[in-house]
Amino acid sequence: MIQKYNLSMRMMHWLSGVGFLFAIFLGIILTHTSWIDESNEVQYILLHKSFGLLVFFLATLRIIIRFCSEIPNSVADNKIEKFIEKFTHYFLYFSIIALPISGYLMSSFGGRTSGFFGLFDIPLFISKNDELSGSFYDIHKILAYITLCFVGVHILGFIKHLIIDKNNILKRIV
């Protein structure tokens, strides 16, 4: 039985997690545009899209590596904890794919390309449709807030294992 995730899994966990947090942070700033100077708004949008694409690429690679890797057994104490652990992990995997896709669709239906840190643009494959753009905006925003709740559950699970169970599970993923 292995005790630690392999190096590629650990790297993908932290890289995609940090990229995701940057994208979420920028998204929150963008939903509260009164926090930023309007002249900088476009830069925030471009960074948000870039981090979203980075998360999508890393998440795709992460999921492939995950299914090709042996992982440590769960440290959950009971069936309810195991369910919460699995559901949270699967939801987070789902959201790190679904959020960038919904963001891309929102932009594309709005007639706007998505760039990757100024290196290249993802071409538009669909026709402009403001109604669909608005719908994907709603999906993107709601999914982001739900995902933040699941990130909170993920962190609370870590704290519970560390403080209550006295089990330093951090060593499995660092």
Characterise this structure.
The protein has one domain: Up-down Bundle (Fumarate Reductase Cytochrome B subunit). The protein has 5 helices and 2 strands; from the N terminus they run H-H-H-E-E-H-H. The protein has helices spanning 7-31, 41-67, 79-109, 130-164, 170-173, and strands spanning 114-116, 120-122. Helix 2 (41-67) packs across helix 3 (79-109).
In the CATH scheme, the class would be Mainly Alpha
Structurally, how many domains make up the residues? 1
User: Might you state the CATH topology name?
Assistant: Fumarate Reductase Cytochrome B subunit
Low-confidence stretches: none
Architecture (CATH level 2) name: Up-down Bundle
Rg of Cα set: 18 Å
**In angstroms, what separates the terminal alpha carbons?**
18 Å
What general outline do the C-alpha atoms trace? Answer: elongated
Give me the CATH superfamily.
Transmembrane di-heme cytochromes, Chain C
Key features of this structure:
174 residues, mainly alpha, Fumarate Reductase Cytochrome B subunit, two-stranded antiparallel sheet, 5 helices, 70% helix, elongated
Q: Topology of this structure?
A:
Elements: H1 7-31, H2 41-67, H3 79-109, E1 114-116, E2 120-122, H4 130-164, H5 170-173
Antiparallel strand pairs: 1-2
Helix pairs in contact: 1-2, 2-3, 3-4
